[in-house]
Amino acid sequence: MSDRLFIFDTTLRDGEQVPGCQLNTVEKIQVAKQLELLGVDVIEAGFPISSPGDFNSVIEISKAVTWPTICALTRAVQKDIDVAADALKFAKHKRIHTGIGTSDEHIKYKFNSNREEIIERAVAAVKYARKYVDDVEFYAEDAGRTDNEYLARVIEAVIKAGATVVNIPDTTGYCLPSEYGEKIKYLMEHVDGIHNAIISTHCHNDLGMATANTMSGVLNGARQVEVTINGIGERAGNTSLEEVAMILKCHKGIGIETNINTQKIYPTSRMVSSLMNMPVQPNKAIVGRNAFAHSSGIHQDGVLKNVQTYEIIDPHDVGIDDNSIVLTARSGRAALKNRLQVLGVNLDQEKLDKVYENFLKLADKKKDINDDDILVLAGADRTQNHRIKLDYLQVTSGVGVHSVASLGLNIAGEKFEECASGNGPVDAAIKALKKIINRQMTLKEFTIQAISKGSDDMGKVHMQVEYDNHVYYGFGANTDIIAASVEAYIDCINKFKD
Length: 498
Ligand code: KIV
Ligand code: ZN
Description:
Layout: E1 6-9, H1 25-38, E2 42-46, H2 52-64, E3 69-73, H3 78-87, E4 94-101, H4 104-110, H5 115-130, E5 136-141, H6 148-161, E6 165-170, H7 177-190, E7 198-203, H8 210-219, E8 224-227, H9 241-250, H10 265-276, H11 297-305, H12 333-342, H13 349-365, H14 371-379, E9 388-396, E10 403-411, E11 414-422, H15 425-436, E12 441-450, E13 459-467, E14 470-478, H16 481-494
Parallel strand pairs: 1-2, 1-8, 2-3, 3-4, 4-5, 5-6, 6-7, 7-8
Antiparallel strand pairs: 9-10, 10-11, 12-13, 13-14
Helix pairs in contact: 1-2, 1-10, 2-3, 5-6, 6-7, 7-8, 10-14, 15-16
Zinc ion binds at residues 14, 169, 171, 202, 204.
């Protein structure tokens, strides 16, 4: 069996399905180019029939990257496949990913169908997709809860119909690692023609077992893994690319290699987190802020004597460099450009000038500018075309007094101002904002996150606002957390559909 494991990245499809994490096409291209540098084999670029935005992103990503195969998702429906094939027309290497639910729950409740009919639909979809492309991947949705005997029949039939890759998703994140590994082994042993296709894992993390299940699949014969950067994805997320790549690098004895340039892992993680406004939990394996921080006295003592006492990964191997906090008000444009390039962001001169201008303003308020700050600044022009912008904000607050805020908005070029009092500065500012934007909206969630340390640090605010039965996600970043909160609220309002 081959000792090469193919990395199929679905950050831009399954990862991007997370509410509030949607990227525009330009941002998706930026991520796709970074994934190419990282060395992934396949980029799942979207689900073209689902929206014009997804269709367009698959087209533009196909044009922008060269080496990875570009993959487009479909249901087992002819129209989906037609649209996917059209979206892939510029891809140098292309794959259609089609499939259908195979568990009894899906067959009965989703399709109101039966097992034989599902096999027929699966085979028809694969044959239809093969008319357009040579590389067709079939997914058996909810394979984790599909009984092995029936799953083997489905997989055998689709391989005969021309599937080159067969994806065995644990869609609900239900399987135990032993169970998932057994499933892959069963298919390896019972499917006629299994060696004509590659088995792929696609594990969700609902019970925190996605990486363990993926590894179990690999140890039992899977040779493609479907993963996302930082493990992002619906609900509890997907398997993390960085975890699988580093497990195989650390455990050389397994004898399986990937094409991942591990030194690009950290910059890619930062880029995805920043563009998607999706913080990485501090204790996240490989890429979390604390992943290499030794805080207990015993550990620090050991690491100072010899780093191998407590560290199994050299942080440099995943692209963490110790010089990351070096930019200050005295840093020039070239230093900023260089740091952005290290972080995977390439800006044209005009954008760089704008980011540098904002960088100097921030450096006036904050002594050290770290990588997170820079990424926030590089993404800041995302609000430039917004209809509603914050003009000014003044707040007085203190202990034993009511907070008062006065606030000015620029709405499509017209100026508005209001003031209000509240039981705290954020409450006062949002009440003033609501006097200008007079709609029935409710704040559902509000998270403030300091990016690193220090009272001069930039705060990031994530918000969810409900309006007209929809929940909208917003983000703001500012050294003033009241301003960041108002910016996040305005970001939500700018996304309202009317
Ligand atoms: O989790 C899943 O089953 C999926 C399929 C659409 C591949 O994402
Ligand atoms: Zn999935």
